[in-house]
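ingest -> fold -> write
write: protein_1
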Amino acid sequence: MNMLKKSLSIGLNEFFEIIPQANQCCSKAAFSLQRMKLQYDFFAWWNVILVNSFYSHYGDEVKRWRGYRLMAVDGSTAYLINKQEVIDYFGVQNNQSVSVAMGRIILLYEINISSHLLPITCSEQEAVNELIPFYDFDVLAIYDRGYPSFTSIYLHLAHEQERKFVMRSRTGFNREVKDFMRSKDKCRVVHFKAGKKSVTDLAKHGYILTTSGNVEVRLIKVKLDTGVTEVLITNLYDETRYPAALFKELYFKLWGVETNCNLQKNTLQLEAFSRQKVIRKTILKALRAIRPHRKYGRVFKCKRTKGKYQTLTNYKRAI
């Protein structure tokens, strides 16, 4: 947690020097062995405590938009250690020359509210849909155009108190959006109908719906400086309190999450993993003795040719 930039031996010595009454240090091997026992739950709950503490102490100073905290939602990917156990769980991304272990990252950002590392086969949309019920009621979530779907919209609305959202949509998203884009209207309230896939997806979330089901949303046109017209989908229906002219500036607040992603990858070096195994919540049923003089053949690793550093074992860029 001290953003170690030196060798592990030097880092351990310096760490133990600042501990009161500590008169000895531990070896690199002992440290690595104990670190493997540390469960990832600790960091997840620690982040929850830090976020809650921030809003408890500084919540009154947080900038709001029409009373809402703005939260950008976006995804990215992370290069992982090329070990078979990691590949089996997270999957790989293929290019013309190599297959590289890859994970999907989901970021919920105002401050870094939450981050999730998932298998690459899990789509950003599916991952976010699992998180929507846990959004705070005073949050306005802003999404890019990879996220709109009937399922995601329904999951924002299907609560006693709706979760508010603004989603950038493809101009050909569905018939209602196409009709709106052909019209001269700047905003319009419409109803989206459920499809068979939406009915199936919502059943997985515990909602029983038929193809006659629908959701009410507001469509808003936003003309960019390039002259291109985009369409936003929202459940901020009140045109007096939320006039269409406000939404261009509001949508561009999404890009703060891109800066945060750069911070995590390049400054905090997210991809420089120290753990090389997938964490299972299973119980070790049998202990096996360490057999001396056992040797293994050398495994040659495929390196990616682009990026600021390579995702290799025991590697971290010095700053």
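write: protein_2
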Amino acid sequence: MAAAGGRPKPSVRDWPPLPREASPLVSVILPARNEARNIERCLRSLLASTYPDFEVIVVDDRSTDDTAVIAEGIAASDARVRVVRGDELPEGWFGKPWACWQGNRVARGSVLLFTDADTRHGPALLGHAVAGLRARSADLLTVLPHQECLTFWERVVQPQFLLAGVLLIGFRFGSPERLNRSTDPYSAVANGQFILVTRESYEATGGHQKVHDQVVEDMAIAREYAKAGRRRVIAAALDDMTTRMYASLGEIYEGWTKNVFVALRQSLPWPEAAYLLIGLMLLAPLFWLAPPLFAALGLAGGVPAMATFGLLGTAASFACWPAVSRYTRLPLGFALLYPLGVMVVASILVRATWRGSRKIEWKGRVYEKRV
């Protein structure tokens, strides 16, 4: 994200909340499958919103844990929350689009917010976002939250993917505002952790029913909006929203394996070029790993020139990672572990390429040859 005075732009805080009388009813649709670990924290944060008129619809996507029990307990004490027990997954659908579509069918709002159970919303977030949707005359507004990293592997690996995303936007568009103005469907971006849309545009573009067979449904939704000529806005919400995507190395592997390859296929006019693009992406880990490797070989083999070259390159690499640590709010010491993170990312890219779209596993479901 471009920054002015150290603050990413555009930011949801650029748009003051609308007055109560001008605030439309918002239906917050929260698909949840096996989210007992997260669901209460997410719901409590949503219910603490200062936005004047909203409802929360929790769609329990046939969870096998206590997700529905926890959500129903909260609903019993707050009339703004409704829990929908999801129907069996139809043939040809992925789980999240199906849950979102079921939530839409019972929603009452003229504005819909699709969010995830692993998120935590600041009190003013919804008000700022609705105001931004109105101020930009947009049909879809999505935000980039702060990524919460608590365990060792989260802190080592997640910044690698966050940096890759920031660099991709920067190299391809120069600034988020240029991305916001783009009409190219293959450059359309949305973050499924927070997608705010007008009901009119959602119904006109087909909503989640149109992308029912897409595992990376957020990018597919954005692409459909772009195809229809609908205006989209992406903004930062680093101080107003947090999310914890994965809590273990196993979840990191499964989550990014699921997302990386399919997301690349969806972002290219020629889907099979995803193999080539991932191959090029693998050059980045080699770039980051080459300096410390040269330094180690030079020192071990008594080759001063190689050691000097490697140490200088390693120092240059380390110089950029403190900035990443500040952005992700992680202890600076984790910058020293970037070679380990890079190796994990490289292995995930290889795994994603090998698996391709033949087999996708997530939340206890296995999808074979679906995309």
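write: annotation protein_2
Residues 304-328 form the longest helix (25 residues).
The domain at 2-247 is CATH 3.90.550.10 (Spore Coat Polysaccharide Biosynthesis Protein SpsA; Chain A).
pipeline exit 0
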